[in-house]
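Hypothesis: this fold can be encoded by more than one sequence.
Test: take the structure tokens below, design a sequence, compare later.
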């Protein structure tokens, strides 16, 4: 196996594992096994780069499920063309093969195998909310039961005890509900409860909701809450950003894009959290030329270094780069955007 093993996909296939690949950079979303194999061969760019890296979760298990599934959280750099930098991937594969050899020797000697990959320079620990959602989605993928926190989260959404008593809610329970929106009437329960949720539990539910697709009354409920926040006398940029990230999963495309446009043409466009939410989660809507132009003009209102960071991040997304460049060349762009472009090009040349 060592002679044939050149990629992570090789290892998973030749070992006979069942496996699923997830991106954890922008959202938690699946990458097909075929696409991941093509990414490893540099036949296709990485589809969801974030901070110029690929952030991966690899879930694999034996077909009989005799042992607990294994999860690797791995991060590899992406080059300027959006392709995986193979020297980093190759370094991980070398570490992997070394680890396998050491564990085989330990087993033959009657010792205990070690998971030295936890110490790998390519591994990372997802933040708490991402970890909760990933575990929830993994249990759905493996057809396992949700955590013990699932039922209390459902009870909370029923509102029978009021919505102010949220301190006992476990983040894993919230994630389990979101991962199972199509089960137990969860989407309907959240849609009904959402207008009454206090800011903290609302933010937690939205943090999880940004990672899944949804429609119907839940889409309408999220959209209505965003409109209310836009018109509120008290601005809460972090909460608005959380709601916009969650909106990115709404399948009501026209309403979603209408709201994003409204945000980008209002005073909310000056808030960095709002801009980061749109570029980080709703990047698909920036494929629309008008929305992209609104976003670039809003980004120009930020300081030069912030403008540069947001621009570089978008340009690493394979199908967005030409859209960004077209927006920057728009002859109707503002003088401020032209100034920021000059600053960006100067920084690149320097």
């Amino acid at each position: 196996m060592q002679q044939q093993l050149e990629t992570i996909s090789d290892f998973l296939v030749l070992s006979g594992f069942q496996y699923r690949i997830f991106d954890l950079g922008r959202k938690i979303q699946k990458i097909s096994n075929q696409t991941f194999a093509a990414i490893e061969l540099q036949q296709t760019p990485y589809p969801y780069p974030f901070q110029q890296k690929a952030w991966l979760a690899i879930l694999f298990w034996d077909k009989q499920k005799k042992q607990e599934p294994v999860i690797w959280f791995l991060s590899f750099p992406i080059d300027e063309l959006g392709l995986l930098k193979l020297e980093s991937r190759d370094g991980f594969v070398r570490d992997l093969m070394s680890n396998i050899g050491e564990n085989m020797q330990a087993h033959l000697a009657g010792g205990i195998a070690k998971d030295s990959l936890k110490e790998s320079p390519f591994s990372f620990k997802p933040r708490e909310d991402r970890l909760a959602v990933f575990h929830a989605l993994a249990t759905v993928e493996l057809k396992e039961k949700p955590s013990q926190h699932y039922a209390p989260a459902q009870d909370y959404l029923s509102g029978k005890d009021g919505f102010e008593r949220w301190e006992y809610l476990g983040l894993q329970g919230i994630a389990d509900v979101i991962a199972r929106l199509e089960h137990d009437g969860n989407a309907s329960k959240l849609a009904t409860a959402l207008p009454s949720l206090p800011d903290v539990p609302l933010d937690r539910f939205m943090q999880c909701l940004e990672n899944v697709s949804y429609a119907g009354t839940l889409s309408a409920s999220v959209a209505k809450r965003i409109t209310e926040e836009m018109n509120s006398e008290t601005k809460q940029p972090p909460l608005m950003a959380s709601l916009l990230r969650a909106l990115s999963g709404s399948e009501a495309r026209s309403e979603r894009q209408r709201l994003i446009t409204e945000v980008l043409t209002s005073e909310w466009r000056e808030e960095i959290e709002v801009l980061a939410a749109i570029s980080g989660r709703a990047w698909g809507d920036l494929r629309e030329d008008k929305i992209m132009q609104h976003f670039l003009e809003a980004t120009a209102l930020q300081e030069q270094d912030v403008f540069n960071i947001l621009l570089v991040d978008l340009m690493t997304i394979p199908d967005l780069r030409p859209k960004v460049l077209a927006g920057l060349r728009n002859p109707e762009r503002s003088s401020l955007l032209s100034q920021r472009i000059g600053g960006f090009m100067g920084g690149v040349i320097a």
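Residues 103-116 have pLDDT under 50 and may be disordered. The two ends are 47 Å apart (CA to CA).
Hypothesis status: open.
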